[in-house]
Structure formats: structure tokens, C-alpha cells
Write a structure and sequence with these properties.
This is Prenylated flavin chaperone LpdD-like domain-containing protein. The chain is of the alpha+beta class. The chain has one domain: Ribosomal Protein S5, domain 2, CATH 3.30.230. It is 28% helix and 39% strand. The protein has two helices and six strands. Strands 1-2-3-6-4-5 form a six-stranded mixed beta sheet. A hairpin with a 7-residue loop joins strand 4 and strand 5. Helix 1 packs parallel to helix 2. It is globular, with a radius of gyration of 14 Å.
Length: 127
Amino acid sequence: MISLERGNGRFLLRMTIVRMGNDYCVALHGGDRSHIGAVALAVPGGLGSADIRVSVLPLPGHQERELAVDTARCLAGVWGGTVAVSCGIHLDDATPEEIAYVLAVADELVRDAMQRCGKEACPCVSS
């Protein structure tokens, strides 16, 4: 199991990665309250295929859908296995600037995860 952290205070995010054979289970959470807001499952299309199928189960009223999908798709493309991502980040009364900052911190965590698992770059993560 790999545990990563980025940010501080109410902007502290955590990522936990459990390798299961060739697959991965990832929890991305933090903010004022960790929770489950969306779960995404990314499945690579097979040997030689660039296609990655992603299914998502968002909870009604939660905003983590896009982050869960993007994280799962990116990591599955880089690691080559099926990736399940549970994502839940809550910030009380967040401003658009705070949301943008949290998304940047999440991108940093994805980069950290790839480096810890032997991959340096992912085209899905903003530079």
C-alpha cells in the first residue's frame, strides 16, 4: 500500500493506492471532510489498444465525478491495469479559486502516484 499527501490545512488531500495483482484500488480524499462522492472504474481495452473504458457512479449532489473519471482513466493508461478510484473531497463554502487550487493539488498527487509506481509522466495531468 502506498499513502501520499499534498496540500495543507483544509486543502490537504490524501491518496491511498493498493495494488491488486495488475490492478489498482485508489482512494483520493480530503478537504474539510473526506467522504465518497464518486467511484470510477477504468478498464484498458487490451493489448495494443489505446481505448480505456470508464464507468462512474457519482452520488447525487456531489461534484467529484470528473475528477474520479480523469484520475482513473489517466492511471489505467499509464499503469496498464484496471483502476478503481473512489473520490471524495469536501470544502465548506468553496470559492471557484479554492476549487481550482484543490484540483491542482489532486493533479500533483496523480503525478506523485505515477512516480511511486514507476511512471514519470501522463498526458492526462496538466503541466
